[in-house]
Fold:
Amino acid sequence: MQLDFSKLSSPQAYFAMTQMIVPRPIAWVLSEHETGGYNLAPYSFFNAICSAPPLLMYSAGKRKSGEKKDSVANVERTQKAVIHIASADLVQQVQDSAQPIPPDQSEVDLCKLELTDFDGFSLPRVAACPVAFACELYKLDTIGEQPQTLVYMQIIQAYINDKLMYKDDKQRNKVNSLALNPLARLGAGEFASLGEIIMPEV
Structure:
């Protein structure tokens, strides 16, 4: 089967892409709403894109009304966000946080999540997440016929649960990826856990 993307509508292209480009990491983005509450939303058009400076990028569409999503509007206003890597056991909370709710409500409360201080940063982090990045806005770009906002965030600090760390044979700090068990996004409402780690010969 061969797909001609020039003949696909935007929803059809999205449906095809999200099933073939798998697994995708998920940015669980916490930002501060103008009301003072916290917005928390997942984005699977996300990755690390640069190490000097250390940059992460997530891509967000607009609401059906044409307004910016909170994870864009809040970051544009405050210049800050915390990007979490959720473990697979948080799959229901990640899914629930994707649902639209009124602006005076918080996904943190909806999902019954506990926040904790992120030392040296003005925003808190989700206590249950094994990895979190304290970030400042680096740049915003808008692309596409149905505009997507590319949000480039510079990592200022990172938190990782001490239980996931160990020294490798070169005495480097190494993350136990199986213990991290990051939640990944597939297509059509499906998620995945990490599974087997494969080490090819070098």
In short: The mean pLDDT is 94. The radius of gyration is 18 Å. The chain has one domain: 5-192. The first helix runs from residue 10 to 20.
